[in-house]
Design a protein that fits this description.
By secondary structure, the chain is of the alpha+beta class. It contains seven helices and twelve strands. Strand 10 and strand 11 (225-227) form a beta hairpin. Residues 1-89 are annotated as: Disordered.
């Protein structure tokens, strides 16, 4: 089973929250009577995978605690229709998400995750389940969480999207390469099997970002992303993830 570290354990120090407050905070599930209980949304594939792989989380003391612990409070009684909790310190990070934090070009940090959970707009998605989304500097941070059928709420995954290109280019937080990197990565993920040369062609990515085993970049006019290590060219995410990266030998 994959291990996870708690949101309040090794997380980087939190800075000031965003001034955008999309929704009111939800700190606890509403009390429901058995005969008035609404129908649960369907369980998503991501929720099923996460539920199958849970093992424990780090508590405030820094020690791992089994998700079957009887000391999980009201979290164990939560159901899919209950909005997830808004306290970032209660969340653990899956190994999948922790790996993403270490990849260049993701632009997702524990701080942005915490800000999104506290202040972001909350929406249900039939594929992923509950999502928090927070726009800062023209970029939307999306965080997918799961906190039902277990005492350990978790951050399943997260990514960035360009919400407003002009605002992003004007923000001191990003430069043009950052904005184009976010745009290309998001475009590749929207339909993994579909080639997207026209959406890659106008972008400039001179600082390689990682997808699968490849480190990718592109120049204006090129209808593909190119791996800086193996030299392969790709027009879709499926092409990237289905091919192993074999570094070129010196001199080639």
């Amino acid at each position: 089973m994959a291990s996870r570290q708690g949101g309040s354990g090794d997380a980087e120090p939190l800075g000031p929250g965003s001034t955008e407050r999309r929704t009111a905070s939800t700190t606890a599930a509403a009390t429901r009577q058995p005969d008035a209980r609404p129908r649960s949304p369907p369980e998503s594939p991501a929720r099923r995978r996460e539920r199958a792989g849970r093992s424990g989380r780090t508590g405030r003391s820094g020690e791992y605690r089994s998700v079957d612990s009887p000391h999980g409070g009201e979290a164990a009684a939560r159901t899919p229709e209950d909005p997830p909790v808004r306290d970032p310190s209660l969340y653990a990070l899956t190994d999948h998400f922790r790996e993403r934090l270490e990849q260049p070009g993701r632009y997702v940090s524990t701080r942005t995750v915490s800000d999104a959970i506290r202040e972001g707009q909350l929406r249900w998605n039939s594929t992923d389940g509950w999502r928090f989304a927070l726009v800062e500097g023209g970029v939307r941070f999306v965080v997918v969480v799961s906190d039902t059928e277990t005492n350990s709420p978790v951050v399943v995954t997260g990514w960035t999207e360009v919400a407003n290109r002009e605002a992003a280019l004007e923000a001191s937080r990003w430069d043009g390469v950052d904005v184009d990197t976010i745009a290309v990565r998001a475009a590749l993920s929207e339909s993994a099997s579909t080639p997207i040369p026209d959406r890659i062609r106008p972008r400039t990515v001179t600082r390689p970002f990682e997808v699968g085993e490849h480190r990718l970049e592109t120049e204006p006019g090129e209808p593909f992303v190119r791996c800086t290590d193996c030299g392969c060219r790709f027009r879709s995410k499926e092409g990237i993830t289905s091919r192993r990266c074999r570094q070129r030998s010196p001199g080639r």
